[in-house]
User: Fold these one by one.
Assistant:
Number 1:
Amino acid sequence: MNDSGCIHLSNFKAAKGTNPYKIVHAFFVSCTSFEARRYKATSCLCFTCGQPGPRMHSCLHCIFFACYAGHIQDHSKSKKHFLYVDLSYGNIFCAQCQDYIYDRELTEIAMTHRLKEAKSLGINVPFTPWMPNNNEAMALRRLRKRRLISPHTTIGLRGLQNLGSTCFMNCIVQALIHTPLLRDYFLGEKHKCKAQGTGKCLVCEVSKLFQEFYSGAKTPLTLHRLLHLIWTHARHLAGYEQQDAHEFFIATLDVLHRHCMNGVDVTEKKENGRCNCIIDQIFTGGLQSDVVCTSCSGVSTTIDPFWDISLDVAGPGSLQACLERFTRAEHLGSGAKIKCSNCRAYRESTKQLTLETLPIVASFHLKRFEHSSQIDRKISAFISFPAELDMTPFMSSHRRAVDVGADNNNAPEGIFEDNRYSLFAVVNHLGSLDAGHYTAYVRQMKGSWFKCDDHMITRASLREVLDSEGYLLFYHKTVLEYDCDVS
């Protein structure tokens, strides 16, 4: 956004004043009365295609609404009307400057309307004083965000049309949309894309999705552009047959990760050499593998990044039990000897997996689909999972502490960190391996759960969530470390 204004907006204000912006903002952006909200709902459609979006804009020179899919630009070129208003946020775009323009006087009008809107909705929004250094625009964004996440709001909840066996995509999108730090990142307009305008960047498309979800609209969205981009960049998922939601989740993170790296300075790395993109900051953890020689007790340690943890569901039926089996030492046997660097010979060994570092979002994949040469089947056994999860017992630091009998004086580094997580999304698979359907539960606010079944969104209880046949489980870290940099 251009914070210094532009000559074209200044000339417009000199000729027509601020009244055109006041009217557009009051009726079609903030909607300061019930009548304004009703009028917007019935009249705010694209004059070219008749659709309510995406990203509706209003011409500031005349009465003309159009979506940002090229129609507002066509109007601007044909009529020489170069200023138009984004009806989601009230920002003014100048087609001659090719940028959104900041103006202090119009921002004051917008802030006043936002406060009236909040009052008309019965929402108590603390007043944010004007700040120096042209930060009024940031104050306006924060005010809008406060309204969006106020208690009992349903903004951010939208159904998704099934495009033909695309429930696997819809449930993953719902989980990502309700990932708190992803929401803050995209609503904060943090993504800077070098390929802007090409229509090929998946991160740009996801950014638009967040804007659509939090625009306040209730009609179901159609994800044809997202699906096309995924097909383009993950060709093994192309086609209208039912896909695996877990495979789609990993493929989506991979494409987002790669596109994030295309949109930022490639020198932006963490000290350990890992990518510093938003995907890795939120989803990446470190999995430690310790291989111990049974002859000399020599240890070979490797640490690999992971985005999720796949867990076998055979045996005791709880997430904690699955994690205990996952991190239990395993004897590799005589058929899998390794060459010990100390013994300089092939020896039997044991292998143990632990979590060296934890991600902000811990994603668990319960392996319910079994494929073998003899049979393909779905495991429908009930696996209980908690609303609150402590990952400390599965940490590498915890295992080291147990090995040395640690107390407060000699505990390994990291043993007393807070490793608690809170459940915020669950993906379920209903039916059989050949004829199944995916749904999702998402947490909108603490204690407020909703079931997402393609275009249908219904309220759910926590008990209903915990009793469901979980397939993918998403937990968010309860306490974030001070030096966690999500920028």
Note: The longest strand covers residues 420-431.
Number 2:
Amino acid sequence: MRSETMSRPAKQIHLAAHFPGVNNTTVWSDPEAGSHIDFSSFVHFARTAERARFDFLFLAEGLRLREQNGQIYDLDVVGRPDTFTVLAAIAAVTERLGLAGTINSTFNEPYEVARQFASLDHLSAGRAGWNVVTSWDAFTGENFRRGGFLPQERRYERARNFLRTTWKLFDSWHGDEIVADKETGVFLRDARPGAFRHADPDFDIVGQFNVPRSPQGRPIILQAGDSDEGREFAASSADAIFSRYDTLAAGQAFYSDVKGRLARYGRTPEQLVILPASTFVLADTDTEAQELAHEVRLRQVSGETAIRFLEQLWNRDLSGHDPDGPLPEIDPDPGENTVSRGRASVRMYRDPIATAREWRERAEAKKLSIRELIIEVTGRQTFVGAPETVAHGINDLVQADVSDGFILVPHLTPGGLDGFADRVVPLLQEWGVFRTDYQGETLRDHLGIGVDR
């Protein structure tokens, strides 16, 4: 299928760029791999995304370095700076690029987060985006005074309450419109911009919000959950949702399901943008790109890394196994995670035993070693080929309602986005499916959502 032959008007593609930092995506052995903490790396990456007219730059964040078998391991980056600090600094060296970051709703407080995002939205002239995430492990909680963790069913409840509370703070600068609290009915005789009162099972606060209404009203809300609770949370509250589905059938099913939930909240399909995270490998020809992609995967998944990935499913110490040998004969331990800390690990797989069975069947059918299997099942090189091949691949999936665009994750930073900006974006622009210039000032404008007031 080639999208230019389709009868309906072409959808406009949304593109964002992820500066990686909490996984093994980056090929550190490449001479072009740069620092993940020097500000010059962030500047280069952001300016490339902006000259390519991307919607936004995205920063993930981990609140504690992960451990496996009691040691910090090589699937993490050590030394990632604070998200708000980096985004505020990038705001000073860019003009239109959206600035989105992950901020946790489990181990933060609404007043502080609302104040930080309202400030960032002012400093950037309306380009702030918030990826709302939750945490569930006590290991991460040990870094915080409250400590502990939330069970699965409570994580999204707190996140919803957290978001409602921050919205009340963002909206508190409507001035004279605030005459009574909608939940308590308490009349605020001294109603003035910034006055707020909010009470729910998680938060009970009252006071004065000290940051005026920002250019977007509220920051763009992003969400990444794939569970039923996560999809419902996105349908009710998010402006964009990350997706892990980038194949035709799975992507269309996810797209249809999430978009179909919006009506019950009085929303239209255009009010939620679906963006899978995807990697890419470019070369002059498709054959060269395939060869390069294979080399990249070998560098991303060493023998040791393959064993560590396998341990996350098996929930067992597998350090004695040969990464070039077969899968373990023993089944995964489906109980509480004891091998990986600070990561979803076994919880990433709803049925570890069934997943292990699928992996064994695949390995036997293709005669794959542990490392070869892990390279295959963890691969995210969605787009591999010459520039035109990659451009068609992206456009075809968007036009087929697999997604509304993609968040691109290069395997090199800070220069890994350069080739895409120089060789793929011009083709999408030529076909009329991607902007040649920004049409608005704010991130809401870029996403086509409009100002939230």
Note: Residues 176-180, 186-190 have pLDDT under 50 and may be disordered.
Number 3:
Amino acid sequence: MNILQINSSARSTGSASTRLADALSARVLAANPGATLVRRDLAAQPHPVLDEATLQALFTPADQRSAEQAARVALDDALIAQVQAADVIVVGAPMYNFGITVQLKSWFDAIARANVTFKYTENGPVGLLSGKKVYVGLSRGGMHRNGPTDSQVPFLNTMFGFLGLSDVQYVYSEGMGMGPDAVAKAQAQADAEINAVLV
């Protein structure tokens, strides 16, 4: 089994979402002796954003790309290869201003590629990354679960579903900005959810 952990916090240390992702990965590893774990920290290894030069590189046939264009596409290729090789994907996703981080958005922009991780058909788009399990650790400063201010989960469900990743489970750590007692309660609740998700 191959486990891919994506840490999308802007913090390389002290991140609540990374704590959740670490705990989820540890449980998957414990349940699957011999499994391998690859961690990608998008703060320590920031991926370039999708810009005009990148679009030009992606839409240029491979044999016609400049060296610079080929190098840029290769960065996305590496992320796609990691996802394709993974049996389990664990994502640490903090909420910044009611949404996902720019780091995580750049990761999605990199791995969503037509005819590689999804394709368009006469019946609509079809994801090509099916058969994988996804766990997402969500950390929030306030309380947003199942409420109108939670734009993260609908977006993540849309993106994962678009790529064929339909088996997704979420673990929440909310109220992290509401004082020490709230933090302790949130961490205990998150740990309980991890235990329930990964029996």
Note: Residues 92 and 137 are 5 Å apart (CA to CA).
Number 4:
Amino acid sequence: MSFTVVLVGRPNVGKSTLFNRLAGKKLALVDDTPGVTRDWRAAPGHVGGLSFTVVDTAGLEDVSDDSLEARMRRQTERALDRADVALFIIDARAGVTPLDRHFANLLRKGRTPVVLVANKAEGKAGMPGLYEAFELGLGEPLAISAEHGEGMADLVQALMPYAKEDDADAEAQAAAGSIGSEEDEIPIGDQPEPEEDKAKPIQIAIVGRPNVGKSTLLNSLVGEERVLTGPEAGMTRDAISVDWTWRDRRFKLVDTAGMRRRARVDEKVEKLAVADALRVIRMANVVILVVDAGQILDKQDLTIARMVISEGRSLVIAVNKWDAVENRALALKQVEDKLEAALGYIKGVKVVTISALKGQKLDTLLDAVLATYTVWNRRIPTSQLNRWLEGVLDHHPPPLIEGRRLKIRYMTQVKTRPPTLALFVNKPLDLPESYQRYLIADLRETFDLPGVPLRLLLRKGKNPFADD
């Protein structure tokens, strides 16, 4: 059975709490501050034997201008039009408000069926509001507590009429696109190779400082206003995931909150949003770092880049708003110089100049993403590695330690994503870091491994494949 359930209501009635309950994971940010959720997001939902797509939305506001609240409302209306059933949520403890009545009138006139849900109805404090809800004209309200899981059996019965048999159920759930799903949580290096499972989408995290054009880039790629954009910095809070296909390759694009320097982050909601962005980076296959062409690779950009590399993710840098740059040669030279100074140990990070607003060079950006993803998954045959190692040791052996030479016996690749190699040395603790950097740099050049982190693990022992 597969259908879509959208959660709607005014701000701070518990939509995101119910979303997390139905999704079975803490995917949406939850806080007492009204208006935390701004974009709609979807995930596979499961309750009482029903499987469906559940959609969390921003709180409804009675505005229709060009303000942020009005743009949030239009996003919610767009999600509502695509749903099979809407759960209209009110706060039973607060009772029915004029805003609840206003949107109940609008929902009654719409084409999407509505189920009235009175949340926070645990205990006696919610009873007056529950009785008031009858006056909304949406039928008998369901009394639930999203936080404590009460009333879920009644919710299942209310959703049952909208469930429909569908052979594509599994595909629909996969298309819901929730970061943090089970397939995302497979440990790095234990994931199947792309050639073994090309049906899985490539996870792409779009990260950067606030107001550099991350959300505009996602909207331009998918060809619709999927996430809110505007001049206000810090608009995105939840990590919003969108499934998308380009040239027969499946992608999961994830827009994240802008990441400011830690010293400037003081609001609780922003801290939660940045923590969510860091989680997305850890789950990603490729990270697109969006930077502003007017402030190319400032200190915070480079901090984010180093963070991506330290997490073992592959990195592509998108220099946005390139159409506004006058001296482009000078700007590119600045990029090269800053990358060499800050990330000189990881040669070949791909840099693509784009205009997300005008849709310029987005295909070039995606080509760079696929090329970097391929390198990130590369596996080098053991025989080639050891022929290379033999040549390196002949031309540049390790330095003497206390008058004795270290014995490097063997090398093999133990993981991909990122390429991780084990080097067997008689005294691994004595091998200088400078020599390890030399080996990694030569590996990167010899086997054409640009722009991705390489990990070298030192192991003590003899060649494991040699005869005793």
Note: The two ends are 59 Å apart (CA to CA).
